[in-house]
Each structure stands twice: as structure tokens, then as C-alpha cells.
Amino acid sequence: MLLFNMAVSRALKARYQWAIGTLPILFTFAGFIPLIALASWSTHIFGMTMHEPVRTHSNGWLWLTLFIAAMVAFMLAGCFIGYVLNGIICQTFYGWSGEKVREVFWESKVPSEWLKDSAALETSAKELDRLVEKGGCGTLYSRAAS
Q1: pLDDT tens digits for 29-88?
Q2: What three-state secondary structure class fits 11?
Q3: Residues near 72 by beta carbon (within 8 Å), at least 6 away in sequence
Q4: Residue 135 burial by CB count (10 A; 0-12/13-18/19+): exposed, middle or buried?
Q5: Assign residue 5 a region: left if phi > 0, alpha if psi is -120 to 50, beta otherwise?
Q6: Which residues contact 97 (CB under 8 A, 6 or more apart)?
Q7: Is the distance from CB of 10 to CB of 121 less than 8 angstroms?
Q8: CA–CA dist 111, 12 (Å, integer)
Q9: Cβ neighbours for 33, distance < 8 A, ≥ 6 positions apart
Q10: Domain limits of the chain?
Q11: What are the respective helix, strand and coil percentages of the chain, to the nearest 5?
């Protein structure tokens, strides 16, 4: 998946890194909007006040655990929505086929014009080889290389 494939992400030209990363990051932080409403609502459910420290309330740790879990869920959902919107935009506005969207965003087979020049690619390849030797890249490298 291109979103998590750091090897391919580092080899992309800066303009494509920005284009691919903007919506997922934007929607990741947009996940805080419903979180604020959820926090306000949940404090009433747990019988807490907004000015009361969480650690002093009897259900404070439960509230905090649920709040952090909801925050992570909203952030991951926002990132996923931004990533899916990238695919929809490529299909709608650039006329990509569903197959091409799948290849680029799911299989990390980016067009060659998106990649940096050969010198930067050689450096990235050396870095990838070093990571693979250490076991730090796992199956992501094998997908990017194929």
C-alpha cells in the first residue's frame, strides 16, 4: 500500500509526495472535529464537568481510555478517507482506470515520471538494501521492487 510504503514514498518527487499526502493528513486532523463533540457528550454521560481533572473522577481512567481509542479511530478513519479520495480524484479528474488506481495506490507501482532522478534512486536503492539486510523493510520492499 503506497500510504505505508516508505521506500517508494522517499523515491517520489516532492510534488507527488505533497499531492498524495495532503488529503490523508488533512482528513487525519479533521478527525479531531467529531472528537471534540464526542468528548463534550461523553463527559455528560460519565457525569464529569469540563473543569474537573480526569484523574479525580471515579470513571476518569475509563473516559480517558475511551477518548484515546476514539481519537486513534477517528485519525485512522480520516487518513483512510483522504487516501480513498486520492483514488477517486485520480479516476474522476485524470481519467485513470480502476486498475491503474489499484496499481498505484494499493500495489505501489507508481508511474516512472513520479520518481526522482536516477542518482536519487540509486541512493534510495542503497538505503533500501541496507534496510532489507537489517530486516527493517520486510514485505514492503519486495512489493516495491516487483
Answers
A1: 999 999 999 988 988 888 887 787 888 888 888 989 999 999 999 999 999 999 999 999
A2: helix
A3: none
A4: exposed
A5: beta
A6: 91
A7: no
A8: 10
A9: none
A10: 6-145
A11: 75, 0, 25
Would you say how long the chain is, in residues? 146
pTM: 0.70
Enter the C-alpha cell of residue 118: 536516477
Q: How many Cα atoms occupy the beta-carbon half-sphere of 137 within 13 Å?
A: 22
Amino acid code (one letter) for 76 = L
Q: Which residue has the higher pLDDT, 68 or 108?
A: 68
* Chain centroid offset of residue 45 CA: 32
Nearest in space to 2 (alpha carbons), one of 95, 128, 109: 109
Q: What phi and psi values does residue 140 have, to the nearest 5 degrees?
A: -65, -40
Which residue's C-alpha cell is 516495491?
144
